[in-house]
Amino acid sequence: MGGILSDAEFQDILKRVREALDEIPKQFQRLIDNINSVLDWLPGFLMEKINQALKAVGDFIGKILTEIGKIITQPGVPWTLWNHGNTWTEQVGGKTSTWQDVFHIGSLKTDDEWKGGAADAYKNILPLQQKALGAVKSAADEIDDVLTKMAIAIGVAWLAIVAAIVSFVVELTAEAGAAATGAGAPPAAAAAGVSAAKVWGIIAAALAALEAFVAGSLLPSIKDLNQRITNNEGFPGGHWPTLTTDISDSSHKENKGQNAPWEMSKA
Predict the structure, then answer these.
(1) Which neighbouring-strand residues pair with 114?
(2) Is 102 domain-assigned?
(3) pLDDT attached to residue 267
(4) Which residues of 53-91 are buried (b: 16+ CB within 10 A; e: fewer)?
(5) Distance from C-alpha of 181 to C-alpha of 175, rounded to nearest angstrom
(6) Cα 23 from Cα 238, distance rounded (Å)
């Protein structure tokens, strides 16, 4: 899929994130319980440091659960954005480009077989219609570009989040186990603080990068696209270029029709 997460891949990421969100509070409580179970063995000055470390861990976990909770219900749909972009390119841009290649004088057999006022009017409208087709192709390309970039950005952000949060669960689980040994409680609490700070930094950076991309790159591109679509370039008065001459009547050369708009030039 060219680096874009498929539906199945993305759903698997979200599943792993949800499982991690459920597991983190459990392992944090396990860490606290194991430390409490060895309180009688620890001197008072260590308990103060442990409590500070646990408070820091709890604060970071609160931020993690809050921020991911905001986006997990509306995580984005990268594969749909990718597919829609492909549709615009293949079904609109590609077909429009094909027509643009043949909508010019010299590529149509009738250029050499018809003459007269109607023939001239038809030939004169071809460049305008070719320009309109070109405008459609350019707009379709820009739509594809915007949708593809957004799909990639969403996927990159979630890949960073799932990697960070799953590794945090692994580390927190190990730290909670180490805390039950008594002597391992102080270093386990300190290590949990480091792990929590690390994962929060990764998640905050991923979300900030996504926000910066949307604000700094995607929104300007959408604005430019909207301007292109609404400026009527290639579409006089907002409409497909049409003939201003009535060419509904026709006549063959041998009919000798006076002022015939269509006249066969072949003998």
Answers:
(1) 264
(2) no
(3) 43
(4) bbebbbebbeebeeebeebeeebbbbbebbbbbbebbee
(5) 11
(6) 57
Residue type, 186: P
Burial of 103 (0-12, 13-18, 19+ CB in 10 A): buried
Please report how many Cα atoms fall inside a 13 Å half-sphere around the Cα of residue 99, on the Cβ side: 17
Q: List the chain residues with pLDDT less than 50.
A: 1-2, 252-255, 267
Total domains in the chain come to 1
CA–CA distance, 211 with 71 (Å, rounded to integer): 12
The answer as to whether 16 is a domain residue is: yes
For 10-22, give the DSSP string.
Answer: HHHHHHHHHHHHH
Look at residue 264 and give its three-state secondary structure: strand
3-state secondary structure of 215: helix
Which residues form the domain of 210? 7-82+138-231
Nearest to 168 by CA among 193, 132, 142, 134: 193
Q: Give the DSSP H/E element, type plus range, for residue 115.
A: strand 114-115
The answer to whether residue 115 sits within a structural domain is no
CA proximity to 165, closest of 50, 19, 7? 19
Contact 178, 257 (CB under 8 A): no
| Residue at 190: amino acid letter | A
Whole-model pTM?
0.75
d(CA 121, CA 115): 10
- Beta strand 114-115 with 263-264 is antiparallel
Q: Which helix (H) or strand (E) holds 193?
A: helix 185-213
The verdict on residue 2 lying in a domain is no
